[in-house]
Design a protein that fits this description.
Blueprint (H helix, E strand, L loop, with lengths): L1 H14 L10 H10 L8 E2 L5 E3 L8 H13 L14 E2 L4 E2 L4 H16 L5 H17 L6 H19 L9 H4 L4 H8 L8 H12 L7 H22 L30 E3 L3 E4 L2 H13 L5 H13 L8 H21 L6 H7 L5 E5 L1 E4 L2 E4 L13 E10 L9 E18 L5 E10 L7 E3 L5 E4 L3 E2 L10 E3 L4 E7 L6 E6 L19 H4 L4 H5 L19 E3 L2
Antiparallel strand pairs: 1-2, 2-19, 3-4, 5-8, 6-7, 7-11, 8-9, 10-11, 10-17, 11-12, 12-15, 12-16, 13-14, 14-18, 17-18
Helix pairs in contact: 1-4, 3-4, 4-5, 5-6, 6-8, 12-13
């Protein structure tokens, strides 16, 4: 914990050139003179007797510092993800104040790469992102020994590349300890069993017991004994107290609580419940989504598609037109088929009549360890809980005349706008999320930047619900939560940041959402850093001319 804090502190104070805290100062430049390396960064004596320090590659101009601080000032993170870091950012001084240890933890692993990607050179940003990825892998809930063996080599190479960028004074003992962290994780196991966060929280709790400053030990002992008694009584009486209360975003995820919910859409609603009536188009879209994803109707879906293909006019229809007719009329055909006397089971009969048009509407919902809020609910909040992502199997066409569609998994990113609960007349219940979906098929809606970050654009939406064939709804159990950071350079684009719930562990199914996608898409920046660099370590032509000069008195 302290290693990560000190490393992040060194980076932030050095790139922002904080007075008295930066590792790049006159003394560090004189160390370069004494060591006889990096002569392009040696201080030069001016005629007035002062020293002039040439700008380095990691130096930032005033505009870049403002952009860096603006990204951290405007970013909104998830609930129980971190503290409000925007309160620690000063746009006037272009500095960060009063950061706690956990704030540095969040900055180092997630927010610092996002803030640097638009205001720092690619060489420096790639190396810092690689260091962030190493920290993210080491702090994972589940560790892979083979992966940690590779991280051990990556850590050594990353520190070597950092030595080509930052001055020798940057590499304190804490920075050097990074090379030992992967091996320590291999020997000791997951880090969160051994770091200092629980211990410091417990010490803070003991400190709060001190009511009488004249007898601190007695106050702590009395407070600790009282809490132990309360814990025993709460467990013996089986009542919920603040000592055994479940975590904030657990929700009602037990399927035995209410078996009337379809598609595992059981959860815990938040806020006031509204009773509303769906319009015809929204009712059809919500009901149709339930029908298309129910296993009991798969055979009937294939039967109706075969009927559409066997019509005489279907020879002139392409596959896309058949899919459109199927989406528009399947619910009507199903209702007519069931009530015409065809033999179907009771489950299909209940589904064919459709849900009640009067539904329950929520402004928040806890599901799968995530706390979801509608975009309207959090418009005045400092947290962001409306970002969602869904992995869907779709059929795509190469052109309008393409008759051979291709199926594939596509990730759709969206903003949650509405939460409704369908009621199939007391037989079943289904919770659906309605979202504003970004276009995932073209570069206008989703792309990857040079560092591997996924970026989305919500200026052009798809499946808005205006057309009958649109699909604005998804099941609450299908979505995962993400949050977005606005790109200060590309107007309308947002950087996607992922997260996993606190109580979710990788049990070997290959899901590693706690490792962001940049770890897999960003190559190790060895070639970028070694490009056009002399083979000897005494010459580095990485000097910027667009930043302010530093003048020191002799």
């Amino acid at each position: 914990m302290h290693i990560e804090k000190n490393v992040c502190e060194n980076i932030i104070r050095t790139i922002l050139n904080v007075d008295g805290k930066s590792k790049d100062n006159l003394q560090s430049r004189l160390d370069l003179v004494h060591m006889g390396i990096r002569r392009d960064l040696h201080p030069q004596v001016l005629p007035n007797g002062k020293y002039w320090l040439p700008p380095t590659i990691f130096a930032m101009s005033k505009e870049e510092k403002e952009m860096f601080c603006t990204v951290l000032k405007d970013i909104k993170v998830l609930d129980v993800y971190s503290s409000n870091i925007s309160r620690c950012v000063s746009l006037k001084d272009r500095r960060l104040y009063s950061l706690k240890s956990h704030d540095y933890h969040i900055l180092m692993q997630d927010l610092l790469p996002v803030a640097l990607r638009c205001c720092m050179s690619k060489k420096v940003t790639s190396c810092i992102i690689e260091l962030s990825n190493i920290m993210k892998v080491i702090c994972g809930k589940v560790l892979n020994v083979e992966e940690l063996e590779k991280v051990q080599d990556r850590a050594a190479l990353t520190l070597c590349n950092l030595e080509k960028i930052f001055p020798p004074s940057f590499f304190t003992i804490m920075v050097h300890h990074v090379i030992h962290l992967p091996r320590e994780a291999i020997i000791g196991g997951p880090v969160f069993y051994r770091w200092m966060y629980p211990i410091e929280r417990f010490l803070s709790k003991l400190k709060s017991y001190c009511r009488n400053k004249r007898y601190p030990e007695g106050s702590i002992a009395e407070g600790y004994l009282a809490e132990e008694c309360m814990t025993f009584c709460s467990r013996y009486l089986d009542v919920e107290t603040r000592l055994n209360r479940p975590s904030r975003n657990v929700g009602l995820n037990d399927p035995n609580l209410d078996k009337t919910y379809l598609f595992q859409s059981y959860g815990e609603p938040i806020g006031k419940v509204e009773i509303v009536e769906l319009d015809d188009r929204s009712w059809i879209q919500a009901h149709r989504y339930v029908l298309f994803h129910h296993d009991a109707l798969e055979q009937l879906c294939n039967e109706y598609k075969q009927i559409l293909r066997s019509r005489p006019r279907s020879r002139r229809l392409q596959q896309r037109e058949i899919n459109r007719l199927f989406a528009e009329s399947f619910h009507e055909w199903l209702s007519q088929t069931v009530w015409s006397g065809n033999v179907v089971n009771d489950e299909v009969k209940w589904l064919s009549q459709g849900p009640n048009r009067v539904v329950k509407r929520y402004s928040g919902f806890i599901m799968n360890g995530f706390r979801f809020h509608t975009k309207y609910r959090e418009r005045l909040r400092r947290t962001q809980n409306c970002g969602v992502v869904v992995n869907s199997l779709i059929t795509s066409y190469a052109s309008a005349r393409d008759s051979n569609p291709v199926e594939g998994n596509v990730e759709y990113y969206g903003l949650l706008t509405d939460i409704i609960e369908l009621d199939y007349y007391g037989k079943w219940k289904v919770v659906l999320f309605r979202c504003d979906w970004a276009d995932a098929n073209t570069a206008r809606g989703i792309k990857n930047d040079q560092f591997g970050f996924t970026m989305v654009n919500f200026s052009r939406l798809i499946h808005t619900g205006e057309h009958l064939t649109d699909e604005p709804y998804v099941f609450s159990s299908q979505v995962k939560q993400v949050f977005y950071s606005k790109d200060p350079i590309d107007e309308g684009w947002y950087v996607v940041l992922r997260n996993t719930p606190r109580d979710l562990f990788d049990m070997g199914n290959g899901s590693r959402d706690d490792i962001v996608e940049r770890s897999e898409t960003l190559p190790f920046p060895k070639q970028d850093l070694d490009e056009n660099v002399p083979s000897t370590s005494t010459q580095f032509q990485w000097v910027r001319q667009d930043v302010d000069e530093d003048i020191y008195d002799l």
